[in-house]
Structure formats: structure tokens, C-alpha cells
Amino acid sequence: MRYRGREVGGEGRVHRVMESTLTARDRVGVQDFVLLENYTSEAAFIENLRRRFGEKLIYTYIGSVLVSVNPYKDLEIYSKAHMERYRGVSFYEISPHIYAVSDNTYRAMRTERRDQCILISGESGAGKTEASKKILQYYATTCPVTDHMSTIRDRLLQSNPVLEAFGNAKTLRNDNSSRFGKYMDVQFDFRGAPIGGHILNYLLEKSRVVHQNHGERNFHIFYQLLEGGEQDQLSKLGLERNAQKYHYLVKGCCPRVSSINDKNDWKTVRKALTVIGFHEEEVEDLLNIIASVLHLGNTQFGEGEDGETQITTEPQLTYLSKLLGVDGAALREALTHKKLTAKGEEMISPLSFEQAVAARDALAKAVYGRAFTWLVAKINQSLAFKDEMYNSSKGSSSVIGLLDIYGFEVFQHNSFEQFCINYCNEKLQQLFIKLTLKSEQEEYEAEGITWEPVKYFDNKIICDLVEEKHKGFISILDEECLRPGEPSDISFLEKLEDTLGGHAHFVTHKLANGKTRKAVGREEFRLIHYAGEVNYTVNGFLDKNTDLLYRNLKEVICQSDNQILSQCFHREEVTTQKRPETAATQFKNSLAKLIEILMSKEPSYVRCIKPNEAKQSGRFDEALVRHQVKYLGLMENLRVRRAGFAYRRRYEAFLQRYKSLCPGTWPNWQGRLADGVATLVQHLGYKPEEYKLGKTKIFIRFPKTLFTTEDALEA
Ligand code: ATP
Ligand code: MG
After folding, report:
1. Sequence-separated (6 or more) residues with CB below 8 Å from residue 633
2. Catalytic annotation on 125?
3. What is the pTM assigned to this prediction?
4. Under 8 Å CB-to-CB from 605, ≥6 apart: which residues?
């Protein structure tokens, strides 16, 4: 990894706040954890975070990694003036800030012509999405733009409220929780102006469409439409302005949230849709889909005279057929029957009450989920870089990617969703190891620097456990889902035991000696993740992985007049014999693609921490923070940074900046650059343990060595 932007000073502008002086340090802690005396102590680490948090200093570095603690209040540190302060200024000259990371990344892209990415991680409510928005705002405000490009800039910004409306929801942990993972590329031209963007979305939590836990809500868009939609619009959709009337909106008993103004948000979203370039008909089709989900939720079933399941809510069916643009009779039949093919003949068989409810919910989830994917695709079209004028410069454009994706999750009950999320975090950790730890060591080797190799846990073994062909977790899951007979979650668990039993990172309640392990339930398995142990309940794994929508429902929707639906459901799906990819395999493949994208870029990291569960400002719950410091791997991160060298600079740059401090190198050093640097640091009194000279660079172990030198320059 290159430690760009690590230089102190630059262009003669030194704004470094005096956080590094001793008295200030007592009060506000150190702005870079590598400066901690007792860097192996978790307690010292957390104390430093706490002190800074108390002084409203929410940002701290571990080398080039930014740690951010959610302040839960507006700190007024994101103004245009603040942005200006961070422009073109190097990392250590000024207080840590998300703008410093944004700016450094931008400059590295510009000067090194290498694609960059910023990986933001942390648990729900820690501030990932806010951080990614701040980065985007920084670029939108500080990068050069022409009139033409301002359209793209506005669309980039406006994509956020739209995606948040459809993909975010109020949860217990966060009033605006992203229920999907997001990776966004911002593309810049040779002048450094934003000219395009592209979004990839991951694993939308579709189950929320039909069910919410107590105290949680469905996706924002439903409430926004009901609160903010115009009366005649609602009438057309057959909706009432009252969320309480809709089964899918009241499961969590939480229609209103004090921090959310659905009516205003609706206005913002409507405007954003226009800015992004949605046509009126598209908006209408989209609203029809939103409304049809609500009508589906209110569609009830009962028993007919012959005991068959039938729809008891006729008005809903009428609205559904109108809004989904499908034949009412066909929809009625598809919601209450399934089509089977036996001995080459098609047969219709009635659904039980429970099956009909499940089919209805599956339809609601499928329709919403696919409309979300369509929405992302549509936004991507509008962000696509397509101006002919710039074709000639296409080759010289560069990209900054922003990853805002769910952090490691451990709940009381963990299911398929947590499994996917934690697997994703294993992959990102693997990437971190590959990009940071390995390459750090490779650079020392390339420069001929002797050093103590740092031990770190390589989690490849866990990634393999999950994704290996044939014998990995996902393969076993898929196999069980596709197996004829009556596969069940329990038979899946047994298969797991047969295949993975004895693996160092997989545990069930069965002990090798035939006894029972109490800490793992009979319907659970435990994975030993790099960040800790997690017990997963196996219930629901098969259903969630198959994500089945009955074929005849699909057939009906394929014929929809709704333009969005007809693009989302293709006829081939029902005509082909091929099994659709399972949810886990789809996720695995999309993660593999994401990792490939990230591997081709130079990474920066933002690690977000939530200070308390109450969403309150000023409260710092140490136990909660400790937990996150552990799961984010921050102590290991710091250990690796401290074991290595905090700064490295090419000889010519180092000489250029500091040559005036030594008569031997001033005004111009004539000899070999390495000798010049050696002369300079000898004169400055660097101790042998403080630095090493490589083939092309000087490596400085502690930032304070450089601070002292920088101070000398100022004196
Ligand atoms: P999730 O994984 O649930 O999506 P998240 O990490 O994306 O969570 P955010 O939505 O970014 O979390 O932040 C949660 C809330 O915390 C925000 O709505 C905002 O109120 C507050 N918050 C986060 N970061 C900041 C900040 N830098 N300044 C002020 N408030 C913040
Ligand atoms: Mg978020």
C-alpha cells in the first residue's frame, strides 16, 4: 500500500492544530492512535476515543484509517468553509476529518491516476451512510464543474434521497437504516470534474415489505406516499391517507417517528425523481407498484363453501389488477392455486390458507425487490457518462468508489440475513488483509527494509468454509434446496454436520464424544468468524435461499401492462426449465464481483462507531464501543501500523522539503539522494530506531519524529 498524502507540510501551508502538544493531548487525546504510548492497550484506545468524543472531536486516525464516532448531533463542521480548509492540505497538518480522507483520495486519484475506493464500515447506526453522503457533498462542492456537468453532479446527489426512500427504514437501531448494501462509483474526467456515476446494490432486506419487528417500520416510501401524496393521486391508487389501515405498515406498531417528516421527505423524493430524469409515466408506474404492495397486504383469504381457499377482499383484487396491470381473474387464480407439472401434464392444485398467504407475501416481496433493482438501473442510466464531447477523454477518466455496506451483525437471533452480512464482512476483511497487510509487508521487502513480520489472523479459512465449491456452506445449502424429497432446515443442518463437522470454525451442539454442547441450540450452528463467534438459527434458511415465487404468479406478472414490471419479470423465467440462482449463490457471485472491483483500486478506510444505543448525543457507552473496536478489528489494525513505519516519503520529496534545516544539504544536494537524506537526518538527530532508509524512500517509524522536524521548519 502506498502511504500517499502522509507528508507533513506541502505548499507551505501548515495548519496543524496543536493537538500533539502534551497539555492538549491530556485533554483531547491523540489525533492518531499510532501516537498512543500504550498502543497495545484496548483500555487506552477507548479512553482516547472517549476524551476526543467529549471534546466533540469525533474523528481520529489509525495511520491512514479514519475512525469516526457518531455524535448524534450537528457539529457544524461540514460547512463550505470547512471543506475549503481541507482542500489540498495533507493528512497530518490539520484535525482528522472525513474531508481529509475525501481530499486525499481525490488528490491521489488526480496525481497518481489510479482508481481509488473508500470503504466505510461499522454497525447499524454508526454513521456509514452519513459519511458517504459527506464525501459525495465534498466532491460536489469542491470539484470543478461546468454547466453541463452540474446536471450529473445534481443527479449524483439526488440519487441518495430516492434510494433512501425505497431502501431505508426505521429500525430499532437507526431511524434511517439502510436495508441494502451500496457501492457507488463516481467517475471524474481528466480535469477532475465529476462526469458520471454507477451504483451497485446488494441484498435488499425484502422480508421487511411484509413483516416488521416491534418498533420498526416498513421502507420509508410507503409512509411518504401516504403522508405527502396529493389527494387525487391517492384516490387513483385506491389509498387512504392513514398508514394504520395497511397491514404491511402496522406490524411494528410504529407508523410515526419523531425524527422523520414523511410529508417533507415525499416532496424531496418527488423532486429528486424529476432531477434524475424520471418521466411522469415512470413515476406513475412506480407508484402503482408501491400501492399494489399495500393492497396485497390487505388482501385476505377465507374458506369457500367447499373448504377451498378464496380471496375475501374483492375491492383489493380490483385495485391490484388495475395497478399491476394484469387480468383480475388470472391473478385471483394465481393467488389461490399453484400449477404443477406431473408426467408432462399441467395440473392446477388449490393452495391451503397458509400457502395462499405465503404466495401473496412472496409476490409483494418479489414485486418490491425487483422494482428496487429497476430503480437502481434507472438511476444508473441517468448517471451514465455519455456525452460525445468527452469521448476523446474517456481513457483518462478515473474513479472513486464509495462502499457503504452493513457491518458485522450479532443479534440475539441470527438468521440467513446475518449469515450473508457476516460472510460479506469476512470477504471485506480478506480484502483488507490482501490490500493492506500483505502489501505493507511487500513494500518493505521491495525497499529492502528489515522488519519483524507481524502476525495477523488470515480469515481465508472462513471464506473457504462458506464458499468452497461442493463442500462449502453455500454449496451444501443449495444442494439441499434443490434435492428432491422433503428437504428441511433440519436435514440441512444434518448435512452441514456431516460435511463441516470437525472444521475449526464450524460448531454444532454435538460434541465429538457424543455429548451435547450447551452453548449451541439443537436448531443452531455456530460460525467462528474473524470478529467473534456467532450462533445462527437454521430455521428459514431453505426458504430464504430458494426465495420462491410460484410459477403461475410469475406468469401473470410477466404479462403486466406496467412498464416497470414487464421489464422486471421476463417470460423466459417461466418458460425455461433452468432453476433460478439461489439467494446465497447470487450474493456470493455479486460479492466476488465487488471484491474484484475493489481489488483494482487503491483503498482508504473509514471505520464508524456508534457511541450508544439510545441515539443520544454526548453519551459514550464504553462497553458498546469496546464491542465495536473488537469487531472492526481496530486493535489489530493499530498493531500492524505500529509494527511498521508510520510515514514513508520518496527521497527527493523529503530532501526538497527539509533541506533548509541542514547546512550540508542546503541549498542543493549534489550527491546521491539517499546520501543526502542520510546527511539530513543525521544533522536533525534522528535516532537509528526512528527511521530506516530503503531503496527509494525514507521510512519513519513514529509521526512525532516528523512533527518535530516540521516544527523546526516553522521556527
Ligand atoms: P445503517 O447500517 O443502519 O444504515 P449507518 O451506519 O448508515 O446505519 P447512518 O444512517 O449514517 O448510520 O447514521 C445514523 C444517524 O446518526 C443519522 O441519521 C444521523 O442522525 C446520525 N449521524 C450519523 N453521522 C453523523 C454525523 N457525522 N453528524 C451528525 N449526526 C450523524
Ligand atoms: Mg446506512
Report:
1. 429, 432, 530, 531
2. yes
3. 0.90
4. 64, 65, 66, 118, 119, 120, 121, 432
Strand order through the sheet with 697-700:
647-650, 697-700, 691-693
- Cα of 168 from ligand 1 centre, angstroms: 12
Residue 178 a catalytic site member: yes
Q: ipTM of the predicted structure?
A: 1.00
Nearest 5°: CA angle at 181, between 179 and 183?
Answer: 145
User: How far apart (Å, rounded) are the C-alpha atoms in residues 360 and 331?
Assistant: 10
Q: Which ligand is nearest to the CA of 182?
A: 2
- Tell me which H or E stretch contains 672: none
- Residue 18's pLDDT is 36
CA of 610 to the centre of ligand 1 (A): 9
From 127-141, 145-159, 613-627, the region with the lowest mean pLDDT: 145-159
Annotated active-site residue 396? The verdict is: no
Q: Which residues pair with 198 in a beta bridge?
A: 185
Please say whether the beta carbons of 375 and 166 come within 8 A: yes
Percent of the chain with pLDDT over 70: 95
Taking 70 as the threshold, does the pLDDT of residue 8 lie above it?
no
- d(C-alpha 426, C-alpha 447), whole Å: 31
Q: Which of 9, 192, 228, 407 is catalytic?
A: 407
Q: Report pLDDT for 4.
A: 31
d(CA 133, CA 155): 13
The better pLDDT of the pair 593, 711 is held by 593
Q: Which of 657, 675, 653 is nearest to 712 (CA)?
A: 657
Instruction: Check residue 389 and give its pLDDT.
Output: 52
Instruction: Tell me how far apart the alpha carbons of residues 707 and 55 are, in angstroms, rounded to a whole number.
Output: 23
The two beta strands, 337-342 and 345-350, are antiparallel
User: Do residues 475 and 492 make contact, with C-beta atoms less than 8 angstroms apart?
Assistant: no
Which helix or strand (DSSP H or E) is residue 299 part of? none
Q: Minimal CA–CA distance to 289: which of 326, 239, 323?
A: 323
Confidence band of 395 (pLDDT split at 50, 70, 90): low
Question: What is the chain's Cα-based Rg?
Answer: 28
**Would you give the end-to-end CA distance of the chain in angstroms?**
33
* CB 266, CB 243: distance < 8 Å: no
Cβ neighbours of 380 (radius 10 Å): 18
Cell numbers placing 358: 405465503
Average pLDDT along the chain = 90
Contact partners, residue 566, CB within 8 Å, separation at least 6: 558, 559, 560
